Amino acid sequence: NPLLRSEREEIKHASTITNQDIALLIKDVLIDPNAELITSQKITILRMTGGWKHILGHGGEHVRRSEWYKKVPEAAPYVVALLNDPDEEVCATAINALTSLDFKDAIPEIIKLLNHDSSNICMAAAFALAKFERKEAIPELIKSLEHTNSEIRIKAAFILARFGRKEAAPELIKIVNDYHEKSGELHKKYSTYIKEREDLCISAINALRQLEAKEAIPAIGQLLTDKSKRISQISFDTFYELANKGAMPEVTVLLMDDDAG
What we know:
Blueprint: H1 2-15, H2 19-31, H3 39-49, E1 55-56, E2 64-65, H4 76-79, H5 88-100, H6 107-112, H7 119-131, H8 138-144, H9 150-163, H10 169-182, H11 191-211, H12 217-221, H13 229-243, H14 248-260
Antiparallel strand pairs: 1-2
């Protein structure tokens, strides 16, 4: 059957295609100025290069995922060119793709983006450099602790704790205190908002625990009787651990204050 023979030949040909072939195709499409790709097309190619599933759909629409899992590290040198793309979403996606591909040769270019006019690109660069364990990311990560997006604040807290940066402690304590001050109003909010606030607080507590920040004991002590079991449990564990690392004076003061109250 000629048709079946043709299909077999196509399958055989496809099986001989290498990552380098795919990388060159990506190069031709991404870098060719005559291609005139729109933003969404560039982002899709970058995500595929980084080995991510492509998510289609927004908001409440049905979300479909493609079955693309394979990374194309050979395309990383061509992705670097997109760090200069005028569209900040494309630039941020390029940073993420290079991080996913563990392309350390891009580090000098990513460092330059820490001073970008776009806060989103600055943060993407900071998170990438943190994964590459570069200390240049620390100032931007500390700034990210005050970002309006709670997910970004959570990521920043985790990364700073991994770096062991004590200067992050005041901002992390601020997150804990903020949760305590507003915890009485949380029951009036919708469940997703409550979980977001709890997740942020838990991330801050875990980060303070990793930093062995004994100055956080009074703030964490306020949450020992929190209505959320998740919060009260992590607070108790962290409180106990910090108290056993030479922080007994702070614990004594806190208990005296409670007795006085």
